[in-house]
Specification:
alpha+beta, 94 residues
């Protein structure tokens, strides 16, 4: 994988969103999906905390990357986001 390749993110309305470096996308996605599989269903806050603990820090706003990737994976049908008691929860689909 080349370090200058990028991934076009999808928004929840199906439109194209921002694009991010593919290496970063794949790394964050892998960690987040592993955490979600372990938990079954998890609050976005807890998912963010656990993901940040497992990732090596990198340039940019880590939380923005996580939000963008969760939105992308939801738009692609891999995750479902649920609002329960005013808190956002994430679970794997399928």
């Amino acid at each position: 994988m080349r370090y200058n390749e990028s991934v076009q993110l999808l928004q929840s309305n199906g439109r194209a969103g921002a694009s991010i470096v593919k290496f970063r996308y794949e790394k964050i996605k892998k960690v987040m999906l592993m955490i979600i599989r372990e938990a079954g269903i998890i609050s976005f806050e807890e998912l963010s905390n656990r993901t940040l603990k497992r990732l090596t820090p990198f340039d940019g706003n880590n939380r923005w990357y996580m939000e963008a990737i969760v939105t992308d994976l939801e738009a692609r049908g891999q995750l479902a986001c649920l609002l329960l008691n005013g808190q956002l929860f994430v679970k794997s689909v399928g």
